[in-house]
Each structure stands twice: as C-alpha cells, then as structure tokens.
Automatic annotation (TrEMBL):
It comes from Yaniella flava. Its EC number is 4.1.1.33. Keywords: ATP-binding, Lipid biosynthesis, Lipid metabolism, Lyase, Nucleotide-binding. Gene3D superfamilies: 3.30.230.10, GHMP kinase, C-terminal domain. This is diphosphomevalonate decarboxylase. It is an enzyme of class 4 (lyase).
Length: 323
C-alpha cells in the first residue's frame, strides 16, 4: 500500500505559543490561521517490511528528523492496530519534497506533518475524518493540525487528544505578502522556545489569557467580515507573542532590526491609506495581511527589505494518489 499527499504551510493570525501537554501537543490556548496556496510539501508513504526511512528533498534525512518521523509512524501503526488492520506491523519509506525555499522559515513542519499524516493514514488503510487527521497531524507538530483545513482554520485548544483539533472558519478574502528578510537571526526552535517561555517568562499567564480573549475577538471579527478588526488583532497579537518570548531568561529574540523596519513600513502604509497589518513567527521574517486588491501595492513598498511572495488562501492537506 502506498499514498501521496500534498499540504501547504499556514500562517497564524492568532498564534500558538506554549503547550499544556508536551507529549500530546495540547496547546495552552487556541489559535487561528490562513492556509497558504504555495510552498506545498508533497509526501509519499510506501509500506515496506524492512525499516522506516525518510528522504527529504532528495537526500536521506539526519537521525533527528528520521527519529521524529518514526515516532509519528508509531502513532499511525497504533491506530492501525486499534482498527485491527494487518498493516499495523509494517514499516514505511517516506519521501518528502518541499516546494518552498528550505531556509525561509515558512512553517515547513506544518505542511510536512499535515502531508505525512494524510499520506500515512491512507497507506496504512485508516479511514480518518478531517478532524481526526487534524488531531493526528497535531501529534507531529502543533501547527500542522491547522494545515488540514482549507483557507482559514481555528485550532481549538481542547483539554485532551480527542478535543484538540482544527476546523474551518469563514473569513473575508485576504492576501498575505511574506517578506523573507536578509537577516541571520540566532535560531531557537519553536519547540525549545515554547519551553523556555513557559519556564522563565513572567508574562506567560498573561499571554495565555490574552490569547484566549484574542481568539474570541478574532472569531467575532471573522463572522462580521471586519477586515480592519482582523488586521488590528493580528498585529497586536504578534507583538504580544514576541513580548512574552523576549521576557524569557536568558532572553530569546526572533525579530531582527530589519523586521522592525518592515513593521514601521506597514505602519507608514496605513498612514498613507493603504490598509495592511503585519505579523511574524519564530524568526525574523514578516508576513503582511491586506485586501487582495492591495497586494501588489503592499509588495512594492516592502520589496527593498527582502524577498517577496504573495499568497492567497489555499487548500488543506489532501491525497493526490493512493494505491
Ligand atoms: C503559530 N508557531 O501559531 C506559531 C507562531 C511559531 C510562532 O506554531 O512544537 O512548529 O512542533 O508543536 O507547530 C511553531 O510551532 O511547534 C508555531 P511544535 P510548531 O504558527
């Protein structure tokens, strides 16, 4: 049995930062994101009797990445065993290709585990709903739960494996303009950064509280199709995430000076009547949200700061082949 799936990264408007359960990857608060229409990961899973292997972008992955894949496949094998399937003992050859630039920091773990969950479930003969695939992808990487979903997703934090999953939410059409800045920031992985924030940031509880409140407001703003409110919530929330991270000891700083220049340029756009709002994840790159008709003007304003890509809302993870 073999299957091939495709998934895209997603960018959060309400961010996930912090786990209530490290093993099950239950977050401390819910989050909300847009699935992108480019930078797909395509992953094939073919069952074998030999051993698990993981090839990424044409080369066999290192021990750490292969280990993470095997741990994930063990979850899939566990589900196959529960379902009484004779695939439960099979190993898998996993081959994965990222279309996005590898070092751009564009959430490749989200597209990677969303594609792997979808392909592996099919290859092992599991018939899972989108909700259950989202729960499964979550176990690989929290943000991957959202890449199962078309266009816009809310990940409900939940309190257990069964209740922590993403589902669709309707939102007004928008574009994302990503600015891959020319900066070499010191890299602390999201996973390690979340632990450091929980353990040492004095603002952690305030961050949890504000994220829950922001998600409620974001859901209301989406229902009202209020792009301005969505943008304001997005930018404020991004700064709050970086603030709680900056307050760790020793400090973690993901934004670079050029990142701040982009935030300043976005504020200047608003002063000029061009409505745009900015966010940034665990790295120096900045992503700007705007109305689709304004994307070209926004891209032109930030082109001096880095490499520009313009995204529309994209499709969630899906099978492209299964045999
Ligand atoms: C997000 N990020 O909501 C936030 C904003 C980064 C900053 O989700 O440990 O790679 O695998 O669950 O999913 C990055 O976290 O972390 C992330 P794990 P993940 O998009």
């Amino acid at each position: 049995m073999a299957a091939v799936a495709r998934a895209h990264p997603n960018i959060a408007l309400v961010k996930y930062w912090g786990k209530a359960d490290d093993e099950l990857i239950i977050p401390v608060a819910g989050s909300m994101s847009m699935t992108l229409d480019q930078f797909a990961t395509t992953t094939s899973v073919a069952l074998t009797t030999d051993a698990d292997t993981f090839k990424l972008n044409g080369t066999l992955a290192d021990a750490k990445a292969t280990g993470r894949t095997t741990v994930f496949l063990d979850l899939v094998r566990g589900l196959a065993a529960e379902a009484g399937l004779d695939t439960a003992d099979a190993y898998a050859n996993v081959v994965s290709t990222n279309e996005g630039p590898t070092a751009a920091g564009m959430a490749s773990s989200a597209s990677g585990f969303a594609a792997l969950a979808t392909a592996a479930a099919a290859a092992y003969g599991l018939e899972l709903s989108t909700k259950d695939l989202s729960r499964l992808a979550r176990r690989g990487s929290g943000s991957a739960s959202r890449s199962l979903i078309d266009r816009f997703a809310v990940w409900h934090a939940g309190t257990s494996d069964a209740t922590s999953y993403a589902e669709t939410i309707s939102a007004p059409d928008m574009a994302m303009v990503s600015v891959t800045v020319n900066a070499t920031a010191k890299k602390v992985s999201s996973r390690d950064g979340m632990v450091a924030t929980r353990d040492t940031s004095p603002y952690y509880q305030a961050w949890i509280d504000t994220t829950e409140a922001t998600l409620d407001e974001m859901i209301a703003a989406c229902a009202a199709e209020d792009f301005t409110r969505i943008g304001e919530l997005t930018e404020t929330h991004a700064h709050r995430m970086h603030a709680v991270i900056n307050a760790t000891n020793p400090p973690i700083r993901y934004l670079a000076p050029v990142s701040w220049q982009v935030f300043d340029e976005v504020a200047a756009m608003r002063d000029d009547g061009l409505e745009a709002y900015a966010t940034a994840d665990a790295g120096p790159n900045v992503v700007i949200i705007c109305r689709p008709d304004d994307a070209a003007a926004v891209a032109a304003r930030v082109a001096p700061f880095g490499e520009i890509t313009t995204f529309a809302p994209g499709v969630g993870a899906h099978l492209v082949d299964s045999a």
